Amino acid sequence: MYRLTNICSSTLSELTNYTKYETVRYLRKRKPIHLGTAKSKLFRIPKRPVLPPDEKLELMRLFNNYRTTMKSLRYYFMVNHSAEFAEVSEDPEESRKVFLEDFQKCSEINAKWNEKQKELREKDIANQHEAELTYVMQRLELEKKKQQVKMEEIEEIVKAEKVASKDFITAENLDEAIERALATPVDYNFALTPSGEKILGRDTIPNKEKETVSVKQ
């Protein structure tokens, strides 16, 4: 690769005299070029890979087969393609006519291939669309079952709350609940003796019968 430098005049002679070609050197990215070879790599000789004899023979056989096949194909296409134009005269119009006929034939073959690929592509798209639709329907059915199970659980919770709501205090039984609470006061401020005797709090009137509670020693 070369670059043109030192262009100092517009005349052809001076341009020829002052023209200088200089080789463009590519700089390294990792290491400056003036540092040279590293000391650890100064006397290093890359070792060539040694292949086993049988593997080398097999690679050579495959390469020779590939080279022979490609040469045969190239020669076959060259002979067949040249045979179509061998009988054509040197008349440019006749050559152009044969060329257009060959181009038309190739275009028809290409159009058939395109139609075939179009059918295959549309078939693949239809199959993919059907698979996606089936997947979506399965997901919808699964979500529907999940919602149904969730609604059943909610109904069970509602039924349990309805059964428990019989003991709730409402506006209808509010007076009765107040009277019952005043008639049966409950005081949790009590103490227990080592023998299990229950000593009530100071705000509760003790009963004549002393209540005892079992106490684990």
Please provide a brief summary of the model.
The chain has 217 residues and is mainly alpha-helical.
Task: Outline the fold blueprint.
Elements: E1 2-5, H1 12-17, E2 20-23, H2 53-86, H3 92-164, H4 174-183, E3 191-192, E4 198-199
Antiparallel strand pairs: 1-2, 3-4
Give your account of this protein's structure.
The chain has 217 residues and is mainly α. Among the domains are: 37 residues; 71 residues. It has 4 helices and 4 strands, in the order E-H-E-H-H-H-E-E. The strands form 2 sheets. A two-stranded antiparallel ribbon has the order 1-2. The chain has a two-stranded antiparallel sheet with strand order 3-4. The longest helix is centred in the middle third of the chain and has 73 residues.
Give a quick set of tags describing it:
disordered N terminus; elongated; two-stranded antiparallel sheet; mainly alpha
